């Protein structure tokens, strides 16, 4: 009977495990909602632990935003954010909570709702959904240093604020600085509207998760997995490609492609480049020796009518390695057809048959691959590119070739391990050598006999 019960229970356990795995495999982001008006959301609304809000459920939860008396909506949008970032950054920061401003606003708001997990398929097209759901006056808030924002309360307003990206994994200090700056932006904008007596609702979320989610692999024999594994993020969108005839000559991909002008105006080009593809690449050029990727944007933000970014690559033969290498020589930014900024590039090269990949590329001194300003105009720009992969030569099957990464084989950690191992081996060898040199006396003193006399020559 016991064997029969175990045999019947095994398929049920397997089915539950597979369903649990499927639920964990859905990418999700947190979403915070609050409003200056009461009874926007039912305070008893509760979602059980592990539930991921689907696009259909999110549509129902957002209905109060469209039916409120004063239809003013603010969308604070991160490029990447996960629920674990709140805990992780708070622990790193110590006693001070880096998200204290948002937490206090949620607690003091007459109506609020916290959604720990919302399906990324719902947030990816959230802005398009909001625009289609009402006759909004869309305003992209780029000049975040202004004291007051012009809001016409006689018509519905949708204010979109693209927050600074959180650069996690390389330097936590820069991440906390970005969080602190975002907190100031949120506090300044919401406080300004409240002081002017303008009612509004807020959506605080991200396009995709920032950290790799954990997954549990279900083994056929239902053995417990002692070590958790991390699942690499797959490409959420295809790379940008430039074609000559029927062949692709340039491939370009980045998970985050952002610029900052004059240390104040943030320009996020990720969606425009890869998702919506609102970019003109007609000026790109391809050849066996020189390749130029030209990206032209029309009115990426208020105050900039046109913006062109060029990636200049060369293919040269080097006798030392007896092979061709492709190199990204420089990056150029042209604003409004007049202001020209040029950056020299370091450490971005790969064998001509390979693509180049680097986790972080930009103007910061902390990035493995740097863009170094070459003229005075370039000093007014900050560039941030995460998970860059680019290939301008020898593309086969219309896809990236094997990637040559910017991180070398001998990392600082490997060098530290090698030096420490050599020192320990030297100490061990010296100790063994000293032990082998120890000798015992050839003769010993007999207390019953005559005293032992040892000549000086011995």
Protein model, in words:
By secondary structure, the chain is of the alpha+beta class. Helix 5 runs parallel beside helix 8 (172-195). The strands form 3 sheets. Strands 9, 10, 11, 12, 13, 14, 15, 16, 17, 18, 19, 20 and 21 form a 13-stranded mixed beta sheet that branches. Strands 3-1-6-2-5-4 form a 6-stranded mixed beta sheet, sandwiched between helices. Residues 1-13, 15-25 and 212-234 have low confidence and may be disordered. The chain has helices at residues 2-24, 55-61, 63-67, 83-93, 100-108, 120-124, 126-132, 172-195, 270-275, 412-436, and strands at 28-35, 72-80, 111-119, 137-140, 157-162, 201-208, 214-215, 229-230, 240-244, 247-253, 256-261, 265-268, 290-301, 304-318, 323-335, 339-345, 349-351, 355-362, 369-373, 381-391, 403-405. 27% of the residues lie in helices and 32% in strands. It contains 10 helices and 21 strands. It is extended and about 120 Å long. The longest helix has 25 residues, at 412-436.
Number of helices: 10
Strand content: 25-35%
**Low confidence ranges:** 1-13, 15-25, 212-234
Number of strands: 21
Estimate the global geometry from the Cα principal axes: extended
Q: What's the average pLDDT?
A: 77
Instruction: Tell me the helix content.
Output: 25-40%
- The biggest beta sheet, please? 13 strands, mixed
Task: Decide which structural class fits the backbone.
Answer: alpha+beta
Radius of gyration: 31 Å
Distance linking N and C termini: 87 Å
Brief summary:
This protein has about 450 residues and is α+β, with helices and mostly antiparallel strands. The protein has ten helices and 21 strands.
